[in-house]
């Protein structure tokens, strides 16, 4: 759904990646936004200065989930080189075939490495966004795999990584590159979803009932066309959210629950076209300072997003058109009010919606999946 979730879920390290994050079910220019309703964000048990986001696309909820910021001095050619480098590295490993599946022991070990990465890089938002944007391209009306999109690892390919909604996600690939190389028995599709769910849990969110065994799309020709992810500022926000998420097979409750992932992360105007360059919550980082968050403690997963959106009392906190819609639309409002008042109810529904999103369009081997 900007660093945003909701709904919102998208290489070779040339230098140590920045540690800042920018959802959603989630980072493009406002004119081409694909809001991260799916949220871009990151987590931490301690308060930090601030959803599925660097992207206006749900980027999944392009704000919902955030990503380490590129240096302000980086030129367009440098950004393109990073993307190309990331893809050379990710594609140098043989892609999983339909007859392969992830190794359970490697999945468990990779999860511990992801926890360590989160504790040092504070990259929870962008990892949430990575999983959401890979899964959020699913179209329930297309039966063939991988043409239907969804959680198949196709986001690692240059053609999809360059979609406007995925701006900045090259940083996410750089962050997990070493983990993928270390655990070659894990598919990219599984690694993206493992990183996303682990980031939510490590930020203080609910345990996500995940399963693994996703098969990877094999090449760039398997990437979906651009435009399947949500926009943060469409003319009719509620209608737009329903068009995008209903296409995935999700419902109003899922949409609002996933929007809550915007409790993590911040939006950077240079990336998404939304947000302030800096606020009192983001001027000191962690990581590269700047951007505008939805909540004061933007690395902590709780129900504060709903409280802040409802009150709209702090000008330093971000409210996108798609955020405002959850309290303006009569059906969405029922769930938004409930989550603002009851964090346990939010956590319960969010865990279900996140797991549902992470499975969209996936081909599992074995068919029942792997639980770790």
UniProtKB/TrEMBL annotation:
Subcellular location: Plastid, Chloroplast
Domain of life assignment: Eukaryota
Basic and acidic residues compositional bias, start-end: 267-283
Matching CDD domains: ascorbate_peroxidase
Catalytic activity: L-ascorbate + H2O2 = L-dehydroascorbate + 2 H2O
UniProt-recorded Gene Ontology molecular function terms: heme binding; L-ascorbate peroxidase activity; metal ion binding
One of the protein's GO biological processes: hydrogen peroxide catabolic process
A GO CC term attached to the entry: chloroplast
Function, as annotated: Plays a key role in hydrogen peroxide removal.
UniProt-recorded name of the protein: L-ascorbate peroxidase
